[in-house]
Design a protein that fits this description.
The chain has one domain (5-185, 202-383): Growth Hormone, Chain: A (Up-down Bundle), CATH 1.20.1250. The relative contact order is 0.17. The protein is built from 15 helices and no strands. It starts with a helix and ends in a 19-residue tail after the last helix. With 402 residues, it is mainly α.
């Protein structure tokens, strides 16, 4: 039995959500691991950052391979590797195993993200671009919240969440087997494995103008995912593991809602809406930390998340739909290389800042200021002449009906 195109679209959207949920699931567990194995905040951010490095490696090597061999083989391999990764997480008894699991997870995610993103755009250009923006946010939100709930209230916290995710990945692998292929095979797959970072010339300017929004939004995600739970525990004085998941949920969940409710706006207007909202949300969050206000922290986080959703959706929609079918996976790989660099490297530097630079509050102030500056640059780019343009005419005639 073969899935309809519409069902295949939602299957691929679920892969984006579940892969990003898997990547955020360890966030509430870092405190559990730290208490059991006695490592420092720097180790926490290194474990987080190594995932981003692995994603980058996979994107650079495998980012465009689905343009040559098809979407299905790449997604099948990635889903099975994710299932194996969950088993490594569930049986981890030290930092080494945790690092190994994050490397495997990063490789699987990097291999899948450009293939699944391109596959959704193959089926429906407009819905695919929106799903590429909302999927990572929805996945990050649900993964952090689910993990936080299981850690706080159910037994075997370091096993149960990974077992549930592993079952889901196996089910998705079976779904991929029944999914119709949307990319024609062509020669050059081995040459495509050579690491490269390039764009079609027509897309270089749109990507350059979108880059500050991508960097600013994903640097914010990196901070919340790696050090958000520590900041919130210091603010509340509570040892609840659910709080870390709630912080990430507030950020990514409001981002997903913003993508949904602003999807009718042009890419340029999305960036114009998202960047000031992001700046206001970060400022409100930092002020709430100084005032010891938990309610203010979550309100500011939700506002920053709405800005994150608007700005990132605008960036995605200003670039990805302009690519030809045989360029889509490669273009998405470049976009995600920028995003994961922005997420991973600053998070590691933040861990160093917490230990050696004056603590988590001061580090949050410095990190927030940097993200606000990047957001201001993104706003300036969107407001300039010929900045982030509205969507061009479709470059192909892929039907949107199932």
């Amino acid at each position: 039995m073969s899935l309809t195109r519409n069902t295949a679209f939602f299957l691929q959207a679920s892969i984006v959500v579940s892969f990003l949920a898997g990547s955020s699931a360890p966030t509430p567990l870092y405190a559990v691991y730290q208490a059991a194995w006695g490592f420092s905040p720097i180790t926490t951010t290194v474990v987080f950052g190594i995932y981003a490095v692995a994603v980058l490696a996979a994107l650079l090597v495998l980012g465009s391979v689905s343009d040559y061999i098809g979407r299905r083989p790449v997604l099948l391999g990635a889903a099975l590797l994710q299932a194996v990764t969950m088993a490594v997480f569930a049986t981890a008894h030290g930092v080494g195993a945790l690092v190994a699991a994050r490397v495997l997870q990063g490789l699987a995610t990097g291999a899948a993200m450009s293939a699944v993103g391109a596959g959704m755009v193959d089926i429906d250009r407009t819905r695919g671009a929106t799903a590429n923006a909302v999927g990572p946010m929805l996945g990050s939100a649900t993964g952090g919240l689910l993990s936080g709930f299981l850690v706080q209230y159910l037994p075997a916290p370091t096993v149960l969440v990974y077992a549930l995710l592993g079952v889901g990945f196996v089910a998705q692998a079976f779904g991929v087997l029944a999914m119709p292929e949307t990319a024609a095979r062509r020669r050059g797959a081995l040459a495509a494995l050579k690491p490269r970072f390039e764009l079609p010339s027509a897309l270089r300017r749109p990507m350059l103008l979108a880059a500050p929004a991508i960097v600013g939004t994903w640097a914010l995600v990196g901070f919340y995912a790696s050090l958000g739970p520590t900041l919130l525990r210091e603010l509340t004085g509570s040892g609840s593991r659910l709080l870390g998941g709630l912080a990430l949920f507030a950020l990514a969940g409001s981002g997903a809602l913003a993508v949904f409710f602003t999807r009718a706006l042009s890419p340029q207007n999305l960036v114009k809406f998202g960047t000031p909202t992001l700046i206001a949300g970060i400022a409100a969050t930092l002020a709430a930390v100084r005032a010891d206000s938990v309610a203010g922290f979550f309100a500011g986080t939700a506002l920053a998340g709405a800005g994150f959703g608007g700005a990132f959706q605008g960036a995605v929609r200003s670039v990805v739909p302009l690519a030809a079918p045989h360029e889509r996976a490669g273009v998405l790989s470049v976009l995600y290389v920028i995003a994961y660099l922005a997420m991973g490297l600053p998070a590691v530097l933040a861990g160093v800042g917490v230990v050696f630079g004056g603590g988590v509050v001061r580090t949050a102030d410095e990190y927030g200021a940097a993200v606000m500056l990047l957001s201001a640059l993104a706003f300036a780019g969107s407001a300039s002449a010929r900045a982030v343009s509205t969507l061009a005419e479709p470059v192909d005639a892929v039907p949107s009906r199932p």
